[in-house]
Amino acid sequence: MPAIDVHDLTKSFDGFVAVDGISFTIESGEIFGLLGPNGAGKTTTIAMLATMQRPTSGAATVNGHDIVTDEDGVRRSIGIVFQDQSLDEELTAYENMDFHGRLYRIGGEVRRQRIGELLALVRLEDRKDDLVKTYSGGMRRRLEIARGLLHEPTVLFLDEPTLGLDPQTRNHLWEYIERLNAEKGITIILTTHYMEEADRLCDRVAIIDRGSIVAEGTPAGLKASIGGDVITIASPDPDAVAGLLTAPWVSGVERRDGQVTIRLENAEEHVPGIVTAIHQRSIGITSLAVRKPTLEDVFLHYTGRTIREEEASGREAMRMFHRAGRR
Amino acid sequence: MDIVYAIWLRSIKRYLRSKSRIVGSLGMPLFFMLVLGFGLNSIVRVPGMEGDYISFLIPGVVAMSVLFTSVFSGIQIIWDKQFGFLKETLVAPVSRLEIMLGQTLGGATTAVIQGLILMVFALFIGLEPTGVTGFVIAVLFMALIGVFFTAFGIAIASRMEDMHGFQLIMNFVIFPIFGLSGALFPIDSLPAWLRPLTLADPLTYGVEGIRYGLTGAAQVSPVICLAVLAGCAVLMTAVGAYLFRKISV
């Protein structure tokens, strides 16, 4: 039985389609990433799978429980860390955990023991009796993850788990997440708009853009699917450079911000030829870089935009969506 | 019941921790009790009552304190909504009814505590204890006021996006409810056209009930008070639960 099975799931708000008929399957024990810009529909997808919002159409099961007809079954078997903080700042870490344990009807002795273990796991046991309002962003995130694990869920949802954290804390969190997955076998579904996060953590990734899944696979597979290497050339005349690259070994060319990105196999062999060709036309090269493709290139390939451009229009859509929601 | 208790416990912890709120919300009732009480004590005689005006006023001000504290407790759900905590409770495998009942009982409990603190102050300015039975009756009515108005606050909070509307509710709903209730003056001395309004105000029955408990005299029979207020409290809890069920975050 897959941990999560999604069929043609759709959510629209007053004509704005936030999630548009997505389907995917997550096997038990996987770390699965929903990768996409803000406003792509990641959080709405999570909200539907966690029974916080009802789908407009389509169906999904989480641990075999239908998300519409068996809400309580889903809720009992999942843990969730929301994108925005959801702690009670006027309570201590221990009290937040204790409240959660009571909500999930975990008996007193077991509850106390598990809280102790989990607070040790996220290294907060020294601060457990301090009010959460005295905590830093990273500590709060760790506490929320510990809380999400308290009732021993088989699936853990992490919605932008490292948003707004400094690089060091982010690294620590990644280690926790990997350890949880390895040691406890918890299936993890995370959303992120950080490419390197998806690359580092996820066994499989679905790239989601404007409510639809545009590509799905392992990070390595996705990167391989767009051609072996990437050459980026900055030039005063990018159009002319792009016009030159018509050889059969070029599998793709994109122009962005005065830069030309070329996808091809065995880039090292072709660099001299490309440089010579450009030089012969007296076009000029500001800089040239050869690298392996990243998920950023994958995103660019499948959507025709960089994720940063998407961020801008995505935020716009979110704002409109919020306004619509208020009415 | 565990869930109701968990949510109740959280309310109580938060209340006991917010010292400034406890002290702050004693301010206005104390002001009413001292200024109106001493200011009017020598010139006002309440017809049909043996005691002086200040002993007439004290139950009214206790009711006022319970009223304000409980409405505020209910409306606080908006903050839980804004600070994200509400999601944590809504995504748990518990029913909305349990959450709402926990909030209501928590709010009512804090409101009763607030009323009791005020009663202690009142002892120093003229409240004469009438015995255990009277005290228990007064607390019972305070609890019912607490349940009614916390549920009322939750009902309002379920339909509000943020705290901006709070002033509006205070000025156009809560103050009129307080003013019409007979907390400050005997309802018998009101003009006839105002009387139906007073009798339609649930707080009237709460005030009269507390007054009966604390002074032994009231203008509405305590049995009627109990029946009406208890009925209203149940009804409002149902309305609050219904609206809270539809809340979304």
Automatic annotation (TrEMBL), chain A:
* Name under which the protein is recorded: ATP-binding cassette domain-containing protein
Provide the topology term for how it sits in the membrane: Peripheral membrane protein
The record ties this protein, via SUPFAM superfamilies, to: P-loop containing nucleoside triphosphate hydrolases
| Pfam families reported in the protein's UniProt record | ABC_tran, DrrA1-3_C
One GO MF annotation is: ATP binding
Q: Which domain of life is it from?
A: Archaea
Q: Which organism is it from?
A: Methanoculleus frigidifontis
Query: What family is it from?
Result: Belongs to the ABC transporter superfamily. Drug exporter-1 (DrugE1) (TC 3.A.1.105) family.
TrEMBL record, chain B:
Which InterPro entries does this entry report, sorted A to Z? ABC2_TM, ABC2_TM_bact-type, ABC_2_transport, Daunbcin-R_ABC-transpt, Nod_factor_ABC_transporter
Domain ABC transmembrane type-2: start-end pairs: 20-247
Ordered alphabetically, the record's keywords are: Membrane, Transmembrane, Transmembrane helix
Task: Write out the transmembrane intervals.
Answer: 21-44, 56-79, 100-126, 132-156, 168-187, 220-244
Database matches in Pfam families: ABC2_membrane (PF01061)
**Membrane-related topology note:** Multi-pass membrane protein
Is Transmembrane set as a keyword in this record?
yes
By what name is this protein known?
A: Multidrug ABC transporter permease
